[in-house]
């Protein structure tokens, strides 16, 4: 039942608080008297009609991870902002804790618990008497990890704990209510030793009543019940009586059953190359924006991801044994082209229009050299090109696209970086597979797919150590996939992957996250989302300790964990450093051991002979997040046209540009159009629109290629001197690559055109075509000529020729025959007269 407190009731409550404080008791404001704006914060995040007055943001958590050497007091700093349409009075905050996370799924679901589930509570601290519209106020909360004498977090065993900061207030024209909260995870790897001094009575020798105070961590700090003044109570002669001191021993981590940890470290970006620009041997590449220059430069996202690994290689090189760089070849192609100079288009809708020089050449050169040096000493693998939707790719079933997406990436990464990437492994960006997609991956030989633990039936039980399948042998976390020959699956922790995906400036929720664990990440601050990720990373190391506390079965020996952030990961440089710092701490403390990706893949591949097999699970959300039907349909049409035109292009070893190099950017653009980058974030609609725009640009570019090869007549009307006079035409090729064409003719039955066969046209050149023609009609005739590929696809536009012949056909034959007969008659008569000796009458007048 929800109880609404009026202003009068709030005043009574304030008087009660004052009385209790005077009596030496620090009151806890009862949450039963402070109704929440909603019973479930997760529901509030999805209800746009729910009125909001305050917004609470977590800005700093100290320590981020509790260890033996950290402070024994947890400090949370944050900000409360009035985002409503009225002032809010009596703004108070407090820190609360929920029970320890007992299974992997609770890493997500515990963050959407009702606030009543956070039943360990601290004291309320006043933030502001009044917070006007648009105003903000900072706050700081402190609670000791353990205490028997003052409110604390009451944490006595290591584990991962959900924490909540609750803000109450009284909006104008309303009653007191819980107006917002913020949640995050606190990883506690161990508990530091601590002691505390607390005043039992709070009464001085002269009988005065003092403020209730407490001291923690041997700091000598005191704190009032309302977050007021601080002082020291260490002195034994300050007039205070009956001081007690209690010591808490350290609780070290349980390192008896360490987890073997492997982590993928993605280096990818959303597609940046301008769409619809065919290959060129001389022109610089064009980018849709220059954001990549900022990302590669010092302090940028990609710089930070790389620098975090470089720093870890110097400080804790063992961590890199279990880390593998997962590189998108599309990013490498783009950066490699940037090193040679590039252009940034003024209007992405006009990829071949006005452009300016890019500013990131130097940053690209430096970043690529650093990556080459790091890749030479670290595991490296290639991911599918441009984070393409593999399900859409399987539906297209085009071998050339499949090769570009799956076979070429390893060759690209190896050639640009000068390394040999890890073979036989495939990581789909979505983290899930259909059976048809799995068959596509394994078509050319055995392959291990890295997928979410809930993308395979029984996967979560396997990682939890409760599965009884043969694949739970020590060191294995793989499954043989039913119905797909040659495919095995190595599983990554879905909850940890979801937490890692929530980090950074562009948080996203992976497709494999179930609906029960989905919530609006934009309501959480980047600090809170980082804490969630650190907690998820620590969780596998905490399983032995938690199982002892909860009474659950202990984890299996030799357990293995794979962490997989999203491929297009928006983690900031500081976030990336914090993630690797956590892994370093886990390794140094003995809670985990690094495991190479090759060992994980080999162990998974060994399950190929298991007698049991599991089915793939493809969630409906993955369909929603996948490439649109319009993009897939467009890709299907254009890839057929590209394949046909590439077959017609001439392969010249001496040419600067080959047919494959000419069409490859457009083929890759179709993959980029089906990219999943951005489709699970806040601007999913924008990502869909970008994909459809890219596909449309490819269609226009392919149209331009076909239109660039055409036939031209040298004159509008041809007058032939005989019925077998040839026709002269000009075939023009504006492409930078030679092409083989055939001439197609649409002519009347009275015209017989000889097929001149295939004709090669030079790059950016023309050739005169001599077309033999036999015409048996003296009328003006219209003939239509066009060019086509040898397979029959039409090229360019047709041209119409009007032919007028001087040949007369049958009339000419009759006239010629009659004239010949007359000639023979006259010649015969002359000979007859001469034979008789008679003068020929035709000679009269000529005789002498």
Provide an overview of this structure.
- Helices cover 31% and strands 23% of the residues.
- The longest helix has 27 residues, at 810-836.
- Strands 3, 4, 5, 7 and 8 form a 5-stranded antiparallel β-sheet that branches. Strands 12, 14, 17, 22 and 23 form a 5-stranded parallel β-sheet that branches.
- With 848 residues, it is an alpha/beta fold.
- Mean pLDDT is 83; it is low at 1-48, 198-243 and 467-475.
- Helix 10 links the parallel strand 18 (425-426) and strand 19 (447-452).
- The protein has 20 helices and 33 strands.
- The chain has 4 domains: 54-195, Immunoglobulin-like (Sandwich); 259-548 and 559-631, 7-stranded beta/alpha barrel, CATH 3.20.110; 714-805, Immunoglobulin-like; 810-836.
Total strands:
33
CATH level 1 class label of the largest domain = Alpha Beta
Total count of domains: 4
Structural class of the secondary elements?
alpha/beta
CATH architecture term of the largest domain: Alpha-Beta Barrel
Distance between the ends: 151 Å
Poorly predicted parts: 1-48, 198-243, 467-475
CATH topology of the largest domain: 7-stranded beta/alpha barrel
- Share of residues in helices: 25-40%
Number of helices: 20
Shape annotation: elongated
Average of the residue pLDDT scores? 83
| Residues in β-strands, percent | 15-25%
Biased composition (Acidic residues): 197-211
Transmembrane segments: 807-827
Organism: Rhodococcus rhodochrous J45
Region (Disordered): 197-254
